[in-house]
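TA notes, week 10

Several of you asked for a full example with nothing omitted. So below is the full record: structure tokens for the whole chain, then the designed sequence directly under it. When grading your own attempts, check the secondary structure regions first.
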């Protein structure tokens, strides 16, 4: 695919006003290509989740521009934006955001179903991704019956199932043990990246740094490192 997957310029996002104003994202520029797996690291509260939300059409920025595959996403109307999120983006939320009334397989199948794929086919495809994350046996359980790590894996399967061009993962291994987190990110790296997608991962987990093409650092709303940083890429 030609051109950048994501191109952001001068992005700003703040919350509140006056004394209570929080500058969550400050003048961020970012360019991500197809076939890249970009990591963003940084302290709690530095704006990582806010930045991901602005890049993926979830949270409207106060300043700047986001182009995804050449489309200025914050100039789309509400319907176009919803279509964009459904068809182009897979998002693993830091706090999972599973649907409590749907079982595991149904949660994963939702993006396909919303794209008007046949329900049985959607469940079949969802089951294949549940196998990838080691949860095939949990397919019929509701989220409330799952551990935190299991819910996180359901969220990962749901983000991948529609094979979106852009996969965005917010702390995808936070609730997983080291081996499980490593195995899942390895799958993402080998299978999803190989399909020339663009993947952005926010993480504190140095055990999965080996899969990064680049590591960027976020500090106080600013993105500071823009090239491979040897000290960040060191394992352990
Ligand atoms: N909806 C909101 N309303 C008000 N302030 C917010 C909101 N969302 C985020 N913030 C503030 O913006 C700043 C950045 O938050 P954000 O969640 O992006 O940080 P983060 O880097 O993802 O942190 P963590 O590593 O803990 O997940 C914080 O000061 C936070 O309190
Ligand atoms: Mg966060």
């Amino acid at each position: 695919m030609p051109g950048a997957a994501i191109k952001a310029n001068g992005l700003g996002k703040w919350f509140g006003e006056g004394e209570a104003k929080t500058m969550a994202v400050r003048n961020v520029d970012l360019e991500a290509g197809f076939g890249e797996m970009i990591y963003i690291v940084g302290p709690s509260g530095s704006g990582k989740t806010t930045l991901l939300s602005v890049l993926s059409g979830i949270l409207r920025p106060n300043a700047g521009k986001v182009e995804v595959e050449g489309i200025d996403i914050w100039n789309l109307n509400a319907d176009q934006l919803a279509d964009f999120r459904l068809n182009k983006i897979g998002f693993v939320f830091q706090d999972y955001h599973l649907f409590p009334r749907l079982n595991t397989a149904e949660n994963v199948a939702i993006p396909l179903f919303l794209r008007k794929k046949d329900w049985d086919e959607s469940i079949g495809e969802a089951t294949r991704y549940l196998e990838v994350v080691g949860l095939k046996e949990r397919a019929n359980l509701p989220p409330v019956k799952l551990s935190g790590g299991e819910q996180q894996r359901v969220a990962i399967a749901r983000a991948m199932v529609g094979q979106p061009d852009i996969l965005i993962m917010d702390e995808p291994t936070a609730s997983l043990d080291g081996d499980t987190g490593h195995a899942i990110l390895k799958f993402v790296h080998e299978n999803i990246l190989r399909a020339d997608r663009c993947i952005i991962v926010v993480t504190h987990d140095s055990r999965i740094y080996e899969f990064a093409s680049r590591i960027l650092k976020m500090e106080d709303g600013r993105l500071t490192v823009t090239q491979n940083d040897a000290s960040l890429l060191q394992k352990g």
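Residues 6-233 form a domain with the Rossmann fold fold (CATH 3.40.50.300). Use that as a sanity check on your answer.
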